[in-house]
Amino acid sequence: MITVPAGSTLTLRCPDMEAIPLVCLSEVRAPFLAELPPMPVLSLDEPGTRRYGILELASSAGVTWVEAELRDGLITVLGDTPAGVVQRRDSPRRPGSYPATGTAQVDTGATQRLVALSGHVQDVSTSGLLLRATADDASPHLPSAILRTLLHVSMPWGEMNAAITTVDQRSDRLRGTFEWIDPGDARALAAFVTGS
């Protein structure tokens, strides 16, 4: 069963315009993603405006992207997910504040560059993490288009080393999944988040 809770923040990305933030106004459920009924949302659009784009959908099953239409305060899923769920919400997880430093690989279009960053991991699971950080250039937010990040995180058992593939980033927050994690750290992390 797929559940989109009331109060969830969704993002609709339309061609040639900035992403549109949406807030789901009531809980919606369906057995499959393609069967979700139209969801009432709060947006800044005028009544009667129609927009088509790719919807970043956070649900009980995880985060995915799907084609959708926004019309008269309703967002309607137009098809099944093309990419599958990319972050499982049922992975064991643990919130906290764990100091982190690392290097981000940023896509600048024609080339890629490396940017040093530092901050704190605010939530960690066996499949990924949520990082709040800034680049070392004194900017209040992360550079856009981060592809992956090599992180060194101070955890209760010692330093955890991992490569993170970006799932989503906004301002100074980056959510990602583990592309690689040291095997010893993976075992220690699993014990840590499950409390065993």
If you had to describe this structure to a student in words, what would you say it looks like?
By secondary structure, the protein is mainly beta. The strands form three sheets. Strands 2-3-5-8-7-6 form a six-stranded antiparallel β-barrel. Strands 9-10-11-14-13-12 form a six-stranded antiparallel barrel. A two-stranded antiparallel ribbon has the order 1-4. The model is unreliable at 81-89 (pLDDT under 50). The protein is globular and about 55 Å long. The protein contains one helix and 14 strands.
Runs with pLDDT <50, length 5+? 81-89
Compute the average pLDDT. 83
Q: Radius of gyration from the CA trace?
A: 18 Å
Structural class: mainly beta
* Shape estimate: globular
As a percent range, the share of strand residues is over 45%
Give the end-to-end Cα distance, rounded to a whole number of Å.
29 Å
Contiguous helical run count: 1
| Quaternary structure type | single chain
What spatial order of strands do you see in the largest sheet? Answer: 2-3-5-8-7-6
- Proportion of helical residues: under 10%
Number of E-type strands = 14
* Helix and strand element order: EEEEEEEEEEEEEEH
Main β-sheet description: 6 strands, antiparallel, barrel
Question: How would you briefly describe this protein structure?
Answer:
Helices cover 6% and strands 58% of the residues.
Write the layout of secondary structure elements.
Blueprint: E1 2-4, E2 9-13, E3 20-24, E4 28-30, E5 39-42, E6 50-59, E7 62-71, E8 74-77, E9 93-107, E10 112-125, E11 128-135, E12 146-155, E13 158-170, E14 173-181, H1 183-194
Antiparallel strand pairs: 1-4, 2-3, 2-6, 3-5, 5-8, 6-7, 7-8, 9-10, 9-12, 10-11, 11-14, 12-13, 13-14
InterPro entries: PilZ_domain (IPR009875)
Protein name: PilZ domain-containing protein
Pfam families: PilZ (PF07238)
